[in-house]
Amino acid sequence: MSKIKETSTNFANKQALADHCSEVYASIILGGQWSIAICSWLANGKLRYCELKKSLPNITERMLSLQLRKLEDHKIISRSVFAGVPPRVEYELTAIGYELVPIIKMLESWGEKHKKCMD
Amino acid sequence: MSKIKETSTNFANKQALADHCSEVYASIILGGQWSIAICSWLANGKLRYCELKKSLPNITERMLSLQLRKLEDHKIISRSVFAGVPPRVEYELTAIGYELVPIIKMLESWGEKHKKCMD
DNA sequence: TAGGATACTATAAAAAATGTTAGTATGTCT
DNA sequence: AGACATACTAACATTTTTTATAGTATCCTA
């Protein structure tokens, strides 16, 4: 499933860093172009696949799927399928996922402030 | 200086996301394999280039330079050169850099907790 | 005089992440 | 009958990030 090469130096470095520093571990989980944006949208409640897609206008379906799957594997979001036609799939933050929300909010206000520094 | 292609879709997507969400903007700045680890080490005070190198055993000098330069460009760390032989260069978090420290601490405790969830 | 310490840079290659395009199944609506 | 909506996956291409290796300059010490 994962395409990463477990013999690479990069893999070893990530592992070593993540083992030593939980903050790096966290940042690896949250890394990826769209993960934080997805979590931000889900912070207000569950959303369907197509709703997420609309919220992130330029995301491709492939990236959306990949990121959702990754977040799901890390138990940050949960996935519920409702049978029927057309099918319906809802994504929602898990308990540990909701605990990210204050961190994301802090990142947001830090980002705002930082933008002003850079002017 | 930067090698990124400003005509790529990836570049456009990053821009758009960063414009809309300051939390994504922040995560882009802090992204990169070693940035958070470097900030973590600097949280306790200034360090020299070679001290950082020792703290991050597997980093290559190239990566260390690149990440330091990136953090410096984003005004998260400052660089002070002390002439002499051998030369001496010290890196330190800036004011806005220090404001990351509580966020990093939160990420750290979230990471700890998350690790337990995954067992 | 050879080697070490410091703080880097250059070039190339490998690996990882992201984007493009096309396709699946199923039942409703027109 | 044909288009549409949903929630995806597969194969491939491109871009970005990271690693590998080697080299720079200066002065001090052995």
What are the key terms here?
three-stranded antiparallel β-sheet; Arc Repressor Mutant, subunit A; 7 helices; 2 domains; 12% strand; DNA-binding; 119 residues; homodimer; mainly alpha
Provide a brief overview of the structure.
The structure is a homodimer of 119-residue chains. Chain A is mainly alpha-helical and 119 residues long.
Main beta sheet of chain A, described? 3 strands, antiparallel
What is the number of domains of chain A?
A: 2
Q: State Rg of chain A.
A: 16 Å
CATH homologous superfamily grouping of the largest domain in chain A: Winged helix-like DNA-binding domain superfamily/Winged helix DNA-binding domain
Sheet/helix structural class of chain A: mainly alpha
The H/E string of chain A reads HHHEHHEEHH
Distance between the termini of chain A: 43 Å
- Could you say what the CATH architecture of the largest domain in chain A is? Orthogonal Bundle
Number of helical stretches of at least 4 residues of chain A: 7
What share of the residues of chain A lie within helices? Answer: 55-70%
What's the total count of β strands of chain A? 3
Stated plainly, the CATH topology of the largest domain in chain A is called Arc Repressor Mutant, subunit A
CATH top level of the largest domain in chain A is: Mainly Alpha
The largest contact between protein chains, plus residue counts on each side, is: A-B, 46 and 46 residues
Pfam families (chains A, B): HxlR (PF01638)
Domain HTH hxlR-type (chains A, B): 21-119
Organism (chains A, B): Mucilaginibacter conchicola
GO molecular function, one term (chains A, B): DNA binding
